[in-house]
Design a protein that fits this description.
- By secondary structure, this protein is mainly β.
- The chain has 2 domains: about 1-115, Beta-Lactamase, CATH 3.30.450; about 125-165, no CATH class.
- The protein contains 2 helices and 7 strands.
- The chain has helices at about 105-115, 155-160, and strands at about 1-5, 15-25, 30-45, 50-60, 70-85, 90-95, 100-105.
- Strands 2-3-4-5-6 form a 5-stranded mixed beta sheet. A two-stranded antiparallel ribbon has the order 1-7.
- The longest helix has 11 residues, at about 105-115.
- The protein is elongated, with a radius of gyration of 24 Å.
């Protein structure tokens, strides 16, 4: 995911395509290895290089409800600005002027982490695990009596049943 901008003169742009793997920070929700496909353009505007593109990441997750492993494609648009010179703008990525190569890996990681779902579910109607025996309810019913009401909360439950709406 390196872009050589050595021959890219000011005012010109070039098409970029890339395909590869990146390693995400360690997490309990998603797997660290993600496959990335992307395409876009990089434009030189007086020493500031703007990358605009579309990224598709295939990320492995563990379902928050049933703990089953599943893969999900996450697509997002990305616009990032790069410069060889240090600026006060914190949104501009710096790259080395020695080799004139822009590495997109860190900006892609940052954008991907911002686009990950807050809650990873294997499907919209995931039933989760039985809170008594731990059986995956997506595979069928386990036979446990899940209507059990803790006697400590029984009085509170009756308060809500008697109220008219």
């Amino acid at each position: 995911m390196n872009i050589n901008v050595d021959s890219l003169n000011s005012g010109f742009s070039k098409e970029i395509k890339f395909d590869g793997n990146i390693t995400l920070p360690k997490s309990l929700v998603y797997h660290q290895d993600a496959h990335i496909k992307g395409r876009g353009t990089i434009t030189n505007s007086y020493g500031k290089y703007t990358f605009e593109g579309n990224i598709i990441a295939k990320v492995g997750f563990d379902c928050n409800s049933c703990l089953k492993e599943f893969n999900k494609e996450i697509a997002f648009d990305m616009v990032e600005v790069f410069s060889k010179e240090v600026t006060d703008d914190e949104e501009i990525w710096l790259f080395s002027s020695k080799d004139n190569i822009i590495n997109l890996e860190e900006p892609i990681k940052t954008n991907l982490l911002l686009n990950l779902p807050m809650k990873a579910l294997c499907s919209e109607n995931c039933k989760g695990l039985c809170h008594i025996c731990g059986h995956n309810l997506n595979d069928g019913d386990c036979g446990c009596d899940r209507d059990y009401i803790d006697p400590r909360f029984e009085k509170i439950l009756h308060l809500f049943k008697n109220k008219e709406v």
